[in-house]
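Page 42, continued from yesterday. The earlier attempt failed because a stray header line got pasted into the input along with the sequence. Redoing it now with the clean sequence only.
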Amino acid sequence: MRVSLKDVALHAGVSIKTVSNVVNDHPHVTPAMRTRVQRSIDELGYRPNLTARHLRKGRTGIMALALPELGNPYFAELATEIIDAAAQHEYTVLLDHTRGRRDQEILVSQGFRTRVIDGLILSPIELEAEDLSERAEAVPLVLLGEREYRLPYDHIAIDNVAAARQAMRHLISLGRRDIAFLGARRGRSQPAHLRLRGWREELDAAGLVADPRLVGATDGWGHADGAAAMARILDTGLQPDAVFAYNDLIALGAMRVLSERGLRIPQDVAVVGFDNVVEGRYGAVTLTSVSPDKAAIARMAVEAVLARLSGEQHEARRIHAGYSLVCRESTLGRR
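This time it went through. C-alpha cells are written below.
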C-alpha cells in the first residue's frame, strides 16, 4: 500500500502543507518540525512520487545519454557517473547507443525522443557541425568529448593536447626516445588527431624526431586494434622503446603483442594509455594512464542540462574538466 502525504500528516499531527515543505526541503521549516515530520516519513516508509513532481513542472524527469560504445569501459564508467549525478537531482537517465555512426548521432541529436526527455547529453564521434547547425529542437543539448563545433551548445571536455603532452613528457623524462603512437584514426575522429598532435608537439619540444613510421593507425578503439597496430610496427623491423596509445584498450592490446614478441614492459618498451579504466589497474603489468575526471565531467554535464531547463541565459560554454597522469608499472616497473 502506497503511503501518501496525507498519511504522513496524520501520523505526525501536522498539515499536509507542512509535510510537503519538509519533503521539498523548504527553507522556512523549523528544525524541530523537520525532525518530527522526518520521523513519521521514516516510520511509515513514505517515498515521494518523483514522476508527479516533475510533471507539475512540465517535465518528465528523464534525460537521455547517448554514447558511441557501451562495451568500452571508459564509456561504461562515465555512464555510471552520469546516472549517479542525475540521481542527485531526482532524474532518471535513458541510455542510447549510437555506435559512433553519424546517422545514429543525427537521429539522436534531432530529438526523436523529445516527448519523453527533458535534456540530452551526447558524446559524438562522426557528427558534423552542419548536422547540428539547423537543429530546431528545444530540448537542451550538452556535448561531451573533443569534437570542435563552435555551435551554441555547452560542451564538456578535457584538454586532449595538453594531456597527451603530459603523458609524453613522462616517457621522455624516463629516457625514452623512439615513442610510437597507436590509435591514429583513418577517419575523422578529432580526439585521436588531438592526442596525436600532443605526441608530435612534445617530441618537437624535446628536440626528438616524430617518426611517421611509429604512428599506428586503427579502425576502432579495442584490444584487437591495438594488437594489430603494434604488430604492424614490429613487423617492419622497428622497435620503439615506448608506446603512447589513444586509449587503454589499445594500450592493453599492444602490451599483449609486446609480451608475445619477448619484449619486457617497461624495461624494453614503456607503455602509457588514456582513460584510466579499471581493467588497466589489474593486469600482470599495471598500466600507466591519463585519467580524465569522469565524476567532474558527469556532474558538469548534468548541471549544464539543468541550468538550461531552469532558463538560465548564458552563451554556450566550452568547459574543461580536469585530468591527471596515473603512473604504474608499465612505465615505472614493479617497486
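Notes: The longest strand covers residues 179-185.
Reminder to self: strip header lines before submitting.
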